[in-house]
Fold each of these.
Amino acid sequence: MKIFDSHCHLYDENEPEKLIYSAAENGVEGFVVVGTSYETSRKTVEIVSQLQEDFPELDIYSAIGLHPHDASESFDRIEELVRETLKYVPNGLVAIGECGLDYYYNHCEPTIQVEAFRRQIELAKQLNLALIVHTRDAWDDTFKILDEQGAPKNTIIHCFTGGLNELTECLKRNFTISFSGIVTFKNSIELQRAAIECPTHSLIVETDSPFLAPEPFRGKPNSPKNVIEVLKKIVELKQTDPDEAATTIFTNTQRVFNLI
């Protein structure tokens, strides 16, 4: 199987190369490593640059963004980092994000989150980069803002946790749906129904590591190699051919990040 972890965080890892090596040993060939603030994005770019040298046979890329928890940070610094990265590491950056809205924790005022989200949407469109969207307890505003701003062609709903209604709204807008380890949890009934109904050509898989470890590793630090468990669960739920599903999902990931 060809497998791509479309969303992982390595900025707090002491030895990220060991995690990538372990994942590669288990068949994972692609990684998008994601920042959530200026400092974590800067560190992510550095890590990815080194990993590309260490593992030239793998597809390893970065994403730069302001998570809604960090939305009060300077957007100008993020934009400067994005433009510098595109200039000096042209094959490294594939997306803006993760960005979006989080009204569950609400670490930043909603108005601040909305402004940062709007500006990142525009930056992704301007630079023809994918947009990685985080949304929690904020579906209505997320759809409203993406509609008003005009969503980028390649918009990813990261760590999708919605049900059939939210899935329908995403598919109407041609968004790509990214499933994480949450889909393996026994109590994620509505999410599993959404995974069954989501067309295979519209979905990708991720770990969001070190968070959200899938079964049977729930409660432990997550790792990019565990994206295999997410893929297995999708195959089980959809009762489809594993190799065909893996190939389609790998190609979906390449396409949404403008790699093919």
Note: The longest strand covers residues 93-102.
Amino acid sequence: MKDQNCGYCMKNELLDAFGIYICDLKVSMLILFKEQSHPGRCIVAYKDHIGEIVELTDEERNAFFEDVNRAAKAIHAAFHPDKLNYGAYGDTGRHLHFHLVPKYRDKEEWGGVFEMNPKKVFLSDDEYKEMIEKIKAAL
């Protein structure tokens, strides 16, 4: 099922406001978060419009976490973070998704919780393209 008002569902300007679609995974899609204070930050969003992980069958949940794991491995391979943080939110955007946030010892917020959207670091189209190519190569 799709929600016409959801960027993850529609992959339209609602998604373009904060992310760049990279590719489909087994049961989800991989999105590069445009704000790149944490180089390599991505989102793994479930393929259907559901709000809670408890709405998935065991098989669907396991497949979703396989996608999260695959994306995490690609981020580690492409950007070599010291740690990858995982965030699952959705108070207002009720579509199951995980933020994969690379953390680096010499960068901001090491040892603390990452800001949802610090709105500090945005890249050129070419820089986004280069990051996406690195992630795809590591998938």
Note: The domain at 7-138 is CATH 3.30.428.10 (HIT family, subunit A).
